[in-house]
Write a structure and sequence with these properties.
Elements (H helix, E strand, L loop, with lengths): L1 E3 L4 E2 L19 E2 L9 H9 L5 H22 L1
Antiparallel strand pairs: 1-2, 1-3
The protein binds zinc ion.
Zinc ion binds next to loops.
Length: 77
């Protein structure tokens, strides 16, 4: 959410001007990440890298597939 420091308020993306400035005071609104730090290029790369699932999630999916596979096999025996 873009934050305007002089006005001390959040700006909706549609409320900003085309240049990303505050419509009231004209300063460039800061784009803050969820943690409150200014969003940098490395943060964007971190967010992009988070699509890798953790190993325990893959294990859970694997066990779910094995279980459901066995349930299907179990129908016919
Ligand atoms: Zn402002």
């Amino acid at each position: 959410m873009p934050w305007c420091e002089p006005c001390a308020r959040y700006l909706a993306p549609s409320a900003m001007t085309a240049e990303g400035r505050c419509p009231r005071c004209g300063t460039i609104a800061e784009l803050n990440s969820i943690s409150g730090r200014p969003l940098s290029g490395s943060d964007l790369r971190d967010l992009a890298g988070q699509d890798k699932a953790p190993w325990h999630f893959k294990l859970l999916v694997f066990l779910l597939v094995v279980y459901l596979g066995w349930r299907i096999v179990d129908l016919f025996i």
